[in-house]
Amino acid sequence: MNANRIRRLPASPVVALLAAAGLIAIGAGIAEAKGGTAKPPKGAVSPWVIPTLGDPAFSVAPASLHGFDDVGLLRNATVGNDDCPTITDPATFGGTVTVNGVRITIPCNLIVQMPANTLPWAKFVRGSGTGSDVANDGLELRVVGNMVGARHIAGLAFASQQAANSGTGVISGFDYANGAMKIANANGGTVTVQINDPVVAGLADSKGNPTGRFSAGQSPDPRFSADQDNPTIHAATGYPMCIPRTDPAIPGGDDPLCPQGNRPKAPPVPNPAPAVPPCRNFSVAGVVPPVSGELGAPAAGQVYCSQYVMPNPAVSTIGGDARQQAPFEVGDFVSYSGTLIMSGSGPEYVSAHTIEANVGIYTQPGTQPSYMAIGDFGVGTADPLAVAINGAPQETQDRIFLESETTDVKSVVDIYYEDANNTRNADGSITTSVRNRWTTPFEMTGENAAPVLGGPTGGITTQNTGPQPQRARLRATKAPAGLLSQPSRTVRVAVRSLCVPTPVDPTLTTINQTLLDSCFANAPKVANGLQAGQYIAPVFEYIFPENVRPGDQPVPNDLWHLPFLRSDAANSGIPTSNAANPEGLVPTPW
């Protein structure tokens, strides 16, 4: 999973609002948000209230709890169960690590979030086992936890080679066999950017060879791979992109998993301009253009269309097949983020987990498949207390901010907390179920105030009404009380053309949860194995309480309000059990 935290290329200066024939009635209303950002209306009342988790049994006097959020080079990582002797599964062991000279205890069951991957501490430390791991010492590690008396105990951990390790450039060529692109380096040479895309079990190319999700399949260290369940290799709209496995210039070289037909060419610009644009825009797709303008036409000399709408594959694939990924092309502007690999036998290169092309690929509005990606986002921990448990005044709010990209400019976008219910079976195995907790009813976004034909309210439509056609934004600094309590480890963003939070009664205080969860669990797979119309990402930024008065004792990070860190979260008050970890963190960071 990946939060897609990457520096953005300039967005296309056009927007797309929707009003085409064939729209399924899913809700209507005028967005109250200004500036292309959805916000809750003032005085909104949550249609359902999730209680904040109660205080646990603290291992020290609360006055001895103080938060820390440390970032530095990882040193001396260990794995073991000395601090959790009752836990015997080596895969869940914790250990210790030193960051900036401070020794931090890593509890058993702690999860490390990589840029686009999620690993338990033990697997992270032990590496990929390929013999070509990036050394642990020297990796950047961010640890969020609490000073519990004299000890520093972690609650959350985020690892990368360098969090801000990114670059921007223009593609000048490809190494198809090795899943790499060549980026002009402004000095007459190139930088090699290879997709970190391990071979996916059971996935094969047209010749029966094992392959990766977005390329031929290769990885110097799978810990730093792309997210192979979500399109972290994508266009600016979230459309999944790829490097062909074979050279399309040779006879028979077109890769059916990465077809050239999904990058239509822009013919020479005639004078006068044609009545039907060569690159399929919203008008050609049957969508009334937004007030801010139509998609831009290709510039003189431009080889490939850079803004176009894929047709509905259920009707036609002329002009592209939305069920397949789209190839990068020479001349594309791209931003990339990854790991710098020092090769002993050749020049260094970037092993990329995230690549975004400055290309606006859209899908036929209101239809599937469509695609999404998530940009920066963060959620509050929802501590309701004005005074922290250690006695210091604190500032806290129920809040969330999120920016998403979608290829479907018509369908409403919704946000869900993924409440994971993990149950440990008698044989030691774990059974997991997921409840998708809808967090964007009308009371959250201020949009779609009037239901149509009993349809749901709420959701985000800023990709329709905002300044950019693909951008769904939500910024709620004062969300309705109880709507965002007990935040989850992961967030799902989805379009309603895929799944609808169907109301059970006219008051909208309940929805058909079983139907919603089943819809997401059974979403069709397209584009070489991706589930369309949704994107799931871990939370990289939890907004913890802050001190009000300088000089007070630092307030603790209220990690005990995150149910996936607690062993007693089955009594969380969420309508289904949310025991995200049957054993919780041991020892606890509180």
Strand content: 25-35%
Proportion of helical residues: under 10%
The structural class is mainly beta
Compute the number of helices: 4
Mean pLDDT across residues: 86
How do the strands of the widest beta sheet line up side by side?
1-2-3-7-6
Largest sheet: 5 strands, mixed, barrel
N- and C-termini, Cα separation: 28 Å
Would you count the extended β strands for me?
29
Question: What general form does the structure show?
Answer: globular
Runs in which pLDDT lies below 50 for 5 or more consecutive residues are 2-34, 576-580
Rounded to an integer in angstroms, the radius of gyration calculated over CA atoms is 24 Å
Give a description of the structure.
This protein has a domain at 372-571. The protein has four helices and 29 strands. The chain has helices spanning 121-126, 442-445, 462-465, 513-521, and strands spanning 65-80, 94-99, 102-106, 111-113, 118-120, 140-148, 151-160, 166-175, 180-184, 190-195, 233-235, 241-242, 307-310, 326-327, 333-341, 349-357, 360-363, 372-380, 394-395, 400-406, 413-424, 430-438, 471-476, 490-495, 525-526, 530-531, 534-538, 542-543, 546-547. The strands form eight sheets. Strands 1-2-3-7-6 form a five-stranded mixed beta barrel. Strands 8-9-10-16-15 form a five-stranded mixed β-barrel. Strands 23-20-18-28 form a four-stranded mixed β-sheet. A hairpin with a 4-residue loop joins strand 8 and strand 9 (180-184). The radius of gyration is 24 Å and the shape is globular.
What labels would you give this structure?
five-stranded mixed barrel, globular, single chain, 4 helices, mainly beta, five-stranded mixed beta barrel
